[in-house]
Amino acid sequence: MKLVIIIGPQAVGKMTVGQELAKITDLKLFHNHMTIDLVGNFFDYGSAEGKRLVKLFRHELFDAISKSDLKGLIFTFVWAFDMKEDWDYIESISMMFQSRGGSVYFVELEADVKERLKRNTSENRLNHKPSKRDVDWSERDLLDSMTAYRLNSFQGELNGDHYVRIDNSIMSAAETAEMIKHRFDL
């Protein structure tokens, strides 16, 4: 079992790279908006009940998948590196898979703000993430989060054989996915 966690700020291309990686591997894609947008039909994601349900659904899926005979999973996540609860969350997911013999790989994507703002309105993003269809709100959220949180790691903060950082500002999602596949022998 392999768990590939693709991290990075909003609109950096996590889901799109994950889609391309799923096409060229035996891994299933679970992008973070699959639960956010599901719960968002009933409760605001920022509400206590919304957060509780997203966490619950994700935990149950991770638990079932980590016990299954699937080859692995690609999960996308906006990790606020300055928030201990995000560190703890990633650690808990990782331990769930590792405790059952799985391997965890981290892919950190980064792209300049101009490119991310462009990607924020891409057809693929808007088709797969209903909560991002209010483009004005989504753009404000993207820009505001840059000052509220640290969404890329410091150099050397994450490292090792199971980690790669990729500036995909000028790379296609398919090129990025190929790089990930070869880097981790997926």
TrEMBL record:
Could you cite one Gene Ontology molecular function of this protein?
kinase activity
Keywords of the record: Kinase, Transferase
- Cite the InterPro entries for this sequence: P-loop_NTPase (IPR027417)
Which domain of life does this protein belong to? Bacteria
Q: What is this protein called?
A: Shikimate kinase
